[in-house]
């Protein structure tokens, strides 16, 4: 399907999307807007996965493309662009010299907000129960939108976050001196305005979005939020939609209105690390994820060690002696295959 989008360079545009509803729907259902990352498009499979979990879903293509592959430059397959296409992404905010309304991120953000309005307008959808999920670049877009469109019932940025100019990789290299990004598109300017619950889903080995900027993003987030850092998760659309955390998080928010597990304080006392969590569910295990390496977190080796987990005074406590020469760590707890993480800590 296509829906009307904002004008680009004086011409009308449309957005390509896949829209789906759960089968045999007799009552109104919650919904979710799905935003792809680099190299992606509107994905029918992503929509169908959410439909199976009882959600109406719309997966949008934010670069003027369809979901049909054609031969592009050097005979590489590329998504076919449609006749109503707006801008495509130019590197990393590489079109910042253009008028704001002709920049790709302006249109990507507006596509996401318009998709929210479209989904909420459907008679089959409970309009106050529409969430947002974005992967990689879609996570960046979601991190921006969550501080703008307060109608979303929840948001799930996967990998992507704010403070890109602080990441010691291609983002910092491309964003030095880019005042349009630094003063405008930086998600951190609006994260404290978030009102909906947020799940930050990623992994310690991510080579695009290091742990430091992810932590800075969830620390700045103005609403209650959950962090799930899944070792060896990998980076991509498949790993993002194959993990169970996003579906469980969304269902719990819709049905219960709050996080199913809350991370409390964590830190080090007398060379003993600790992390506290509060949940009504039974936590099965706690794992210390730590590294002794230095440098970019996505290039470090991370070790997993099962540690002590006890329930005390209404909360769960994971604690263990801090391994010597630790340079970064966090604690994961699990319940029924779902991973919830403590805050990330750098240094020993």
Task: Provide a descriptive summary of the structure in words.
The mean pLDDT is 96. It is built from eight helices and 18 strands. It is globular, with a radius of gyration of 20 Å. An eight-stranded mixed sheet has the order 1-2-4-3-7-8-9-10, with helices on both faces. β7, α3 and β8 (155-158) form a beta-alpha-beta unit. α2 (104-121) crosses α3 (137-145). It has 348 residues and is α/β, with parallel strands linked by helices. The termini are far apart.
Fill in the keyword field for this structure:
single chain, 348 residues, alpha/beta, Rossmann fold, Immunoglobulin-like, 2 domains, eight-stranded mixed sheet, eight-stranded antiparallel sheet, 8 helices, 18 strands, 34% strand
Secondary-structure topology with pairs:
Elements: E1 2-8, E2 11-20, E3 29-35, H1 44-52, E4 56-60, E5 65-71, E6 77-81, H2 104-121, E7 125-135, H3 137-145, E8 155-158, H4 170-175, H5 179-185, E9 198-202, H6 211-220, E10 225-229, H7 237-242, H8 245-256, E11 262-269, E12 272-278, E13 285-291, E14 303-312, E15 315-321, E16 328-335, E17 338-341, E18 345-346
Parallel strand pairs: 3-4, 3-7, 7-8, 8-9, 9-10
Antiparallel strand pairs: 1-2, 2-4, 5-6, 11-12, 12-15, 13-14, 13-16, 14-15, 16-17, 16-18
């Amino acid at each position: 399907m296509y829906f009307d989008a904002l004008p680009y360079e004086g011409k009308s545009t449309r957005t390509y999307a896949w829209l789906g509803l759960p089968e045999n729907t007799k009552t109104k259902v919650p919904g979710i807007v799905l935003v792809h990352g680099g190299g992606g498009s509107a994905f029918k499979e992503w929509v169908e996965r959410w439909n199976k979990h009882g959600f109406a879903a719309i997966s949008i293509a934010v670069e003027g493309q369809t979901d049909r592959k054609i031969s592009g430059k050097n005979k590489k397959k590329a998504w076919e662009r449609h006749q109503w296409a707006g801008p495509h992404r130019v590197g990393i905010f590489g079109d910042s010299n253009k008028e704001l309304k002709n920049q790709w991120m302006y249109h990507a953000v507006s596509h996401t907000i318009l998709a929210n309005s479209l989904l909420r307008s459907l008679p089959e959808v409970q309009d106050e129960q529409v969430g947002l999920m974005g992967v990689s670049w879609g996570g960046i877009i979601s991190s921006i939108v969550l501080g703008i469109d307060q109608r979303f019932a929840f948001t799930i940025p996967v990998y992507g976050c704010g403070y890109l100019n602080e990441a010691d990789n291609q983002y910092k290299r491309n964003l030095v001196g880019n005042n349009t990004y630094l003063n405008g598109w930086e998600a951190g300017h609006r994260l404290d305005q978030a009102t909906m619950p947020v799940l930050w889903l990623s992994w310690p080995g991510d080579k695009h979005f290091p742990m430091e900027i992810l932590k800075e993003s969830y620390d700045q987030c103005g609403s209650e939020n959950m962090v799930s850092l899944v070792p060896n998760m990998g980076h991509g659309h498949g790993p993002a939609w194959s993990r169970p955390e996003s579906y469980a998080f969304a269902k719990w928010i819709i049905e219960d209105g709050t996080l199913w597990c809350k991370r409390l304080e964590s830190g080090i006392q007398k060379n003993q690390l600790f992390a506290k969590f509060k949940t009504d569910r039974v936590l099965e295990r706690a794992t210390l994820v730590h590294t002794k390496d230095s440098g970019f977190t996505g290039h470090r080796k991370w070790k997993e060690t099962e540690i002590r987990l006890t329930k005390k005074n209404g909360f769960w406590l994971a604690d263990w002696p801090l391994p010597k020469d630790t340079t970064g760590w966090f604690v994961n707890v699990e319940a029924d295959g779902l991973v919830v993480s403590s805050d990330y800590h750098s240094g020993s």
